[in-house]
Amino acid sequence: MTSVADRSTESTTTDPGAQLAADTVLRLRAVHRTGRTLPLEWRKRQLEGIIRLVTERESELAEALASDLGRTPHETWFGDIASTVGEAEYALKHLKKWMKPTRTGVPLALMPGKASYRYEPLGTVLVIGPWNYPFYLTLGPLIGAVAAGNCCVVKPSEHAPAASAVLARLIPEYLDSEAIAVLEGDAAITQQLIDQKMDLVFFTGGTEIGRKIAEACAPHLTPVVLELGGKSPVIVTKNADLGVAARRIAFGKLLNSGQTCVAPDYLLVEKSVREEFAAELKKAMSDMRAGAPEKQRVVNERQFQRLTGLLKGLKPETGGNADETSIAIEPTVVVNPDRTAPVMQGEIFGPILPIIDVDSLDHAIAIINEGEKPLAAYIFSKSKSEIERLFSEVPCGGAVANHIAMHVLAPQLPFGGVGYSGMGAYHGKWGYEAFSHRKATLKMPTKPDLKLMYPPYSERDQKILRKLA
Ligand code: NAD
What we know:
Structural class: alpha/beta
Oligomer: single chain
Strand order of the largest sheet: 11-14-15-9-8-16-17
Keywords: Oxidoreductase
Active site: 227
Domain Aldehyde dehydrogenase: 32-440
Protein name: Aldehyde dehydrogenase
Bound molecules: nicotinamide-adenine-dinucleotide
CATH class of the largest domain: Alpha Beta
Radius of gyration: 25 Å
Helix content: 40-55%
Largest sheet: 7 strands, mixed
Distance between the termini: 52 Å
CATH topology of the largest domain: Aldehyde Dehydrogenase, Chain A, domain 1
Family: Belongs to the aldehyde dehydrogenase family.
CATH architecture of the largest domain: 3-Layer(aba) Sandwich
CATH superfamily of the largest domain: Aldehyde Dehydrogenase, Chain A, domain 1
Number of strands: 19
Strand content: 15-25%
């Protein structure tokens, strides 16, 4: 590990990666100190730049994701472009209001003081992106970072190399390159950047790496936002519209070959409707795959091996085929695998979907709450009370009734995990807040300047002060 001599003046190190990280952060810090990123106009220009980047260069983005992930242009538009534009437009619309200081009251003892709080940028921050939605999940956090007036280093995932190269090329073209930098590379450069004592690290990725990021940030007391994964469950009760449930679950699982952090990981289906539901699910999957190749490509050989490893020893209800040459796996449904099988342990993150029979909603909730708190939890039911039970009895990042993943697309809602699925939240105003410090300000008048406030305190002074407090 390399160290940097002084946070504000100079950097000396022998490792070229560490030198690049140190020089970049030093340069951005100097820019931040000039106040360049503070005005509303600068922030708005960056947000407009992000919108222009993804809309004007949509075809280049789509080509990159076809190469990295085997995605169709439509999936790129839906998953990475429309989602980014929605976030940026919302921030543009509300930013002026978010930046205004908010007046608050004061207790009697502080009257007639004037109290307020305002959002102050943290300084120079680091956004570490994953490979599964490489544009939305780097530009989305960047929207929060620039809206809040920060300088930012973006570190895209090396596992989506074409997308990483596009970001490195286009971000300087569309955004202020004095204040926003892209550094490509793997874990080493990430660690070297963290060693620069960033003012915040915003990480999206898996839980294990998230822990390493938090550990690396701890010695510097760098705050972290961790957007992690987990096993997001879906309950289907006997009161569900089974056709709608099957279509929406199939849609959520097939999107990006199941490599979506809020994809359905496993289903908990009431026994009395499981056969009928499984038939609907099979039909929905085959209808949605009409005209598409039998198997879905996954990101790389390592993920392919991990996923096919999960299939070993299971008896698929549908699917189960895989092709190593094209690193593609057929969407696969497995009914009632052993709960100790690997497929029911870690996050699946691929086109494999286990269904577990449950006796009741109580049973389903008990199973979910035995595990770590998931990033998302879903229920399909027409019963208001059943929906309310999921919302109130299952601790998780976010909960949705009768759909999959749609909460992600509402900038009016905070998005983030809890426990092993993450800490901190973003989207909309929460993104702006995540990259800001809430600074308290209190303006006191010089008069009156009551003697009773200062020692020595007479009996009478003490009585009055106790009444005022
Ligand atoms: P990952 O954890 O492998 O990597 C993410 C980033 O961390 C990459 O940029 C990588 O270079 C960097 N990295 C890897 N090892 C590192 C180390 N030792 N030190 C420092 N940096 C390191 O995640 P991934 O495989 O790209 O993404 C998949 C995971 O992300 C899944 O678990 C998924 O659920 C989760 N995810 C969460 C969200 C969310 O919003 N909560 C969104 C998408 C994906």
